[in-house]
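User: Last request for today: this protein with zinc ion, please.
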Amino acid sequence: MSSITINCNRLMKDIEALAAFSDMPAPAMCRILYSKTDMAARGMIKKLAEAAGFSWREDAIGNLFIRMDGNNPQLPPVATGSHTDAIPNSGKYDGVLGVLGGLEAMRAIKESGRMPLRSLETIMFTAEEPTRFGVGCIGSRALAGAISETQLLQLQDLDGNAFEAVRAEAGFKAPLNHLPLGKNCYSHFVELHIEQGPNLEAAGTQIGIVTAIPASTTMQICITGEGGHAGTVMMPNRRDALMAAAEFALKVEAIAKDNTSSDAVATIGKFEAFPSASNSIPNEVILTVDIRDRRSEVRDEMMASIEAALAGICKERKVTSKTVVFNCDPSAESDEEILSIVEASASQLGLSHTRMVSRAFHDTAFMARLVPVAMIFIPCANGYSHRPEEYASPDDIENGVAVLANTMWELAN
Ligand SMILES: [Zn+2]
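Assistant: Here's the final one, the structure of the complex with zinc ion:
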């Protein structure tokens, strides 16, 4: 196993080169789905794949599959992968590590001079981040058949552009009805990612082995009251949308805090009042609620409590509300066989490791609907992620890719 040597310098150069494709000044990253920058970054990855002697194909929404043929290309391949889109003002490792690290793992296996039995693939999933269309994991969701062609066609970005129009503008014109991959299209899927939390670093542990990804829901709520002049509408006569939303926001926090599950979290990440003038009573608030727990049932209960709280507040304050559920996804469990192979790989490389739950959502959650999955985490400084200070050390990156390469090799033979 140990004869697979990771070329960390090469990988770090690739990560730096990809970071040059950003719509915000360095070190802040921003690569929004189908933007010129996103397309240029994809171009760079294809060039790297070609330079390594791998073939690639792209589907109708830009999921990119980089392939190294094994001795028996008829067998379902072993796959890895992640995403390269980046939310505004983020860092250069989230997702990128899993794509360029996957590519490096395949290069290292190839350069070891040995040929795996199964083929290997690194997938770059289209738009893991929900930035443009409000829905996360569009690429892996489509591969798993968890978003239909009709639902894709209904997507609109914040500027009102239809998904179909921006897709076509980016050059993806193939029909959308062949996106889902069949069950067991791959033998296994393993994603490498930075932890995006502080636990590995705090414990001094080199490798995290992900056993599960929590159930997650994102919904958008629009609360409508009645606007008016800040001086002339007396307090008893008000139907202030912002005050209703404020009361609701604190209630959402309480529902998550008071839950008996220590995994339960709820976040209001967006909160916009209209018309947003200092002397005007807000007539409308649009906000989002993100709810997660390790168990789907707990998430469902929280969702129900949140909806009941909203109904009560609306009745009390004589305002109305409309909820749109963007996604409501079950939790995903890792495969025990892969978990033990990752553990054995880490042990053989002399790396400390621990099993853990992923606190963030990943494409793996959707690949889990098709094939056995697991994830490998490496520490990131201070747990920072989704901000420019995001950092993973070259040593930790090398460790993670080495574990990935060894795991893929074992799974492929
Ligand atoms: Zn990510």
